Amino acid sequence: MDERPVIKSRRKGKSQTQSMLIPSERMVADALRLAPPGRLSDLGELRRALAVSYGADACCPVTTQRHLVRLSQDGSAPFWRVVDPDRPFARRLAGGPDRIREALAAER
Q1: Which domains does the chain have, with CATH numbers?
Q2: What is the pLDDT of residues 88-108, one digit of tens each?
Q3: Long-range contact list for 45-53, CB < 8 A, 24+ apart?
Q4: From CA 41, how far away is CA 50, in angstroms rounded?
Q5: Which of 28, 52, 64, 75 counts the highest number of beta carbons within 10 A?
């Protein structure tokens, strides 16, 4: 955690606020490397873990997905560990659902 996190306050409900982590691509890549190889982990859990580790209430899902798309294009992190190949989002990634299934199988 040598990187300074960006945490923004946002409204949640009528009278509450929530701190939202805007993760960097490196934060997401580091979290992906910690996911167990060969099995599908929950993307929501990855975001929760990132938020907790940087002291925020939540982690931005849109930014996280953008980083996953970029990481899938350059192959610098094991994005397939958190993307369900049967979900529509998998089609947005380089190689699509087939690449995710193949990478998970290769890690087993």
Answers
A1: 6-107 (1.10.10)
A2: 999 999 999 999 999 999 999
A3: 46/82, 50/21, 50/23, 51/21, 53/1
A4: 14
A5: 28
